[in-house]
Amino acid sequence: MPFTCEISGESLASTADEVVVTPSGHICIKRLLLTKLAENGGVDPFETIRELPLTEDQLVTLAKPSQPQGGQAPAIAPPRPQATSLPNMLHLVQKEYDALVLELFDTRKALEDTRRELSQALYQNDAAVRVVARLAQERDAARQELERWDASVGKSGGNGVKRLEPSSQEEADEPEPKRRRLDPSADPLSNDIPADDFEMISDECGKLMANRKAILKAGAAEAPSQEDLSKFAEIDTKAWHKSTNKGIPCMAQTRGPESNLIATAGKDKQLVVYNQEDQVILHTFPFGSVGTSIDISTEMVAAGDAKGKVAVFALGEDAGLSGELALGARVVGLGILPTKQHICAATSDGRFVLACWVAEEKRLQHISTFTSDEEEKEDYTCGALHPDGLLYVIGNKSGASLFWDFKNKKLAAVLKDGEESDPVTAVAFSNNGYHVAVAHESAAVKFWDLRKQKLVATIKDELDSVTALVFDKGGKYAAMGGKGGIKITTVKEWGISASLENKNPPSGIVWTKGTVAVSSGNERAVHFFGVPP
């Protein structure tokens, strides 16, 4: 097997140059090696990691084997001519060739080093993500254990544990937050709401209605301009779910001024709460099944699954599971009311359920069930909560949108365009409370004015399907996503203002401060779109 130069790669059998061996065992042409040593300051080019010095005295010259023919001595190559112009040209070509070969050698070494560093960085990043996720789970488990221990100490009468008394009369007289107390044995009402719960819901919704202008003004200040919106592109990607089961079926964010928390339910059967402002994972909760609907407030996150389970997880110091409810049918829509104690859910069998979260007892109690008339009853497909909390819209398979009114405790309106059956795939309220967007299986998105109960616009033929809908905080834009990407329209103009490319159909879209976050049912990453820096 003929030897080759480890710098240039050319065969050493056909070269007239002197061949040497380095102390590290590498064979190469002496001329190229000396040139390389002159460039890098006398460091062995094959030992860049240890940076071993190398001098010409350390090189061992290899003698070429003689090949006698007919008993005669081997022919000696004549010296190179140097007096004519042609040899001079050959010398220049040789120098250029040497420089090219040396540059190629350096490039190969740099590529090898870069590959090694990139592999190490990717491994360290993956290990860091796993460690953070494991620590978050251990922290949540420790908090739950501490809470159980505190509860056991309280039941046993203290056993020497001294409770701190208020330091002043003002602190002692400070009113506690109004919390609902329920009889665990009470049966849920049919098409009605208990008086105490109705009062709490009405009070909180009245406060939101009074502050709606201020909330919209703050949301409009965060909304991007038309020029910035046209520049939107993917700027970041976050993957906080496990890679074993890829996919995020649903996503939600907190409402109002505190809209910096994002909750996702993954196919890894976990719920993740992410703080976008601090860019940290706050909690990871084991849900035990794949979520079909999710919502989040500043105090809790609630999720439902295909079998009808609804679970509530408390946030903050007492983070952990804080109540479950079995509804017996697929949960297609779920919302946390402004009271932060009441949860409403829509099931696929045509029921609209209201439940109350008793935090102190870690219990979620079913208090009301609403059903429409049999002639209007259809299988529900999706749902959304009005920003004031007094309305809940539910889409069904016939293409109609049903509006349940908490104030009047009844079905307030049914909106449908045409007689043809076109199942509803997604619904969303505008933050100003005036418009509702309804997406259909035909990929048409219809915008209704609730004040007049009138269809004001229809957008179709822009996407092959629509699986996610959302308005921005100021009610200025509406984003719709599905097979074919994401389209953003301007409210009242109803034209396509921006288009975002997404590999997989979105399962959820949320507007955050200056960005749009998009999840998909086919991958575990959440993509953030905004103006590139």
TrEMBL record:
SMART domains: WD40 (SM00320). Its EC number is 2.3.2.27. PROSITE patterns: WD_REPEATS_2 (PS50082). GO terms for biological process: DNA repair; mRNA splicing, via spliceosome; protein K63-linked ubiquitination. Pathway: Protein modification; protein ubiquitination. It is an enzyme of class 2 (transferase). It catalyses: S-ubiquitinyl-[E2 ubiquitin-conjugating enzyme]-L-cysteine + [acceptor protein]-L-lysine = [E2 ubiquitin-conjugating enzyme]-L-cysteine + N(6)-ubiquitinyl-[acceptor protein]-L-lysine. GO terms for molecular function: ubiquitin protein ligase activity. It is found in: Nucleus. GO terms for cellular component: cytoplasm; Prp19 complex; U2-type catalytic step 1 spliceosome. WD repeats lie at residues 417-458. Residues 146-196 are annotated as: Disordered. Residues 83-147 form the Prp19 coiled-coil region domain. Its main location: nucleus. Keywords: DNA damage, DNA repair, mRNA processing, mRNA splicing, Nucleus, Spliceosome, Transferase, Ubl conjugation pathway, WD repeat. Belongs to the WD repeat PRP19 family. Homotetramer. Ubiquitin-protein ligase which is mainly involved pre-mRNA splicing and DNA repair. Required for pre-mRNA splicing as component of the spliceosome. This is Pre-mRNA-processing factor 19.
